[in-house]
Amino acid sequence: MQIDVNLFRAINNWAHKGNDLNEIMVLFVTWGPSVLSAWLVWFWFSSRKKRKTRFKVLTAVCSFILAEVMYLVSSSFYEQLPPAETLHKVNELITSEMSQLFPNNNSLLFFSVCFILYKTSYSQVRISYLLMIGWLSLARVWVGSEYPSDVLLSIFISWLSATICHKTIYRSKFIKKIVYAYENFEQKIRKKIGKLA
After folding, report:
1. Distance between CA atoms of residues 1 and 149, nearest Å
2. Where are the transmembrane segments (predicted)?
3. For 53-105, what is each residue's pLDDT tens digit?
4. Cα 32 to Cα 107: distance, rounded to the nearest angstrom
5. b/e map of 21-41 (b: 16 or more CB within 10 Å)?
């Protein structure tokens, strides 16, 4: 669609101006999903409300898996090459994704996890998850990796998977059994380490 191309150009052209934001955008697109994944692992072990936190983390993992399944289904109906392969004079700040079709797995991971954290948080911090989704969405277009329509579709898939998982899995018996089993295992390991010490 021409509207999609025009919107892509309007955002991506800012990268051509040698804007100071270029490095920030590249850094966020490149490392954002990895940092979020590492933070989830840290969150699992270090949170004060461990049981509640583990419900969140497991639900976020399930949400990402469901988003991947939805992607596999949607990709049989819709595939789109990156802008650099279909348009001329694209300001492509990241070239490692040249051959990757929509959608991007990193986007699905980031969006689906952030939506779950937003839905399961009740503090003022929860708005930050939506802001991060918005920033990554803008950044992926800025660096020339995806069209705006691709980003929006990734957001929709992630939101749908997060909504389904939040209503069906979060605090379900299935999740509780996994968390309780892990906690029992963790206690046994700590007792063994305590005896060795």
Report:
1. 9
2. 24-45, 127-145, 151-170
3. 999 999 999 999 999 999 888 877 777 777 878 888 888 888 754 445 555 67
4. 9
5. ebeebbebbbebbeebbeebe
